[in-house]
Amino acid sequence: MAHTDHRTLRRVLHREVAGTIGLLADEHDFRAMRRYDSFVFDDHTTYLKHMEAVLRTRALQGSHTTVALFDPEDYAEYCAETGLDPDSHTSRTRFTAALASTGPTIPYDGRPLADLLPTLVDEAVRHATWEYAAALLARLGACASCGEDLGRAAFTRASHLLVRILDTAPPGERHLVCSVSGPPETLVAVLHADDIAGRMELDESEALEFTTVLAVGLATESPGGLVMRTSKPGSPDRIHGWRLRAHGLEPLTAGEVFDAYCTDAESGELISPESNVDYCEPPDLGQGPGPAHCH
């Protein structure tokens, strides 16, 4: 690297930019790319510094740039499938361009990379969670007795429940978390719903991911739960909770919600309750009977 000046490094990076920049988020991924002779960086810190300079230059020039996570394993698979030479900046550019249409990206908004990277990683985790949950639903197949697609039926049921939760919630901003336990790991989805002038606004991607994870819990009868926190200026935050049950949600009592929030999940020790928070039994969702599928 001592023989490569900063201008050369920037020129190399500019050559690999395709409107989307693929970032190597950590040292592990960075080391995996160093096996390619055409990848000219020696250390991750220098690499990130120059990446940030490229992003800022593009922003000053009026270029819109999105940022994606560059996964060396996915890159190697992509090159093997497409017959490209992985030790080539052209191949990296093509892979990065493909990321723009297939993977999670976020727009570069001028933030330092140290602040932007955690957001990008969270986005990638959300995307992977949704893909995994959607694949689980697709594999459920049809009900043996009635022929209905079990995954689609569970998604429809989850959509109905989410609408009811949001419709019956007290006014204010809503923060929902759904977790579904099971092998190989727990699935977690988060949904924010803002109350703007009495009208609810939410992110469609978040809503899709949340509904898909909830549907997995309903369809597979896996242990899980859903909690909602409602915040309104001038009032205590209100927290409601439900247990996942086959085809529905079972409301937690105020005491059960309190216990869930005030117990350390790992040690089981009690945690002091938050101030200005009410732990409440949720409103009736009017769920009705679930589908009578055979299991």
Q: Would you mind describing this structure in some detail?
A:
There is one protein chain. This protein is an alpha+beta fold. It is 44% helix and 19% strand. It contains 9 helices and 10 strands. Strands 4, 5, 6, 7, 8, 9 and 10 form a 7-stranded mixed β-sheet that branches. Helix 1 (6-15) crosses helix 3 (44-60), helix 6 packs across helix 7 and helix 6 (113-139) crosses helix 8.
Topology, element by element:
Layout: H1 6-15, E1 20-23, H2 27-33, H3 44-60, E2 66-69, H4 72-82, H5 89-102, E3 105-107, H6 113-139, H7 150-168, E4 173-180, E5 187-196, E6 199-202, H8 204-220, E7 224-231, E8 237-245, E9 248-251, H9 254-261, E10 277-279
Helix pairs in contact: 1-3, 6-7, 6-8, 7-8
Strand content: 15-25%
Specify the number of helices: 9
**C-alpha end-to-end distance:** 62 Å
Low-confidence stretches: none
Largest sheet: 7 strands, mixed
Helix content: 40-55%
Structural class: alpha+beta
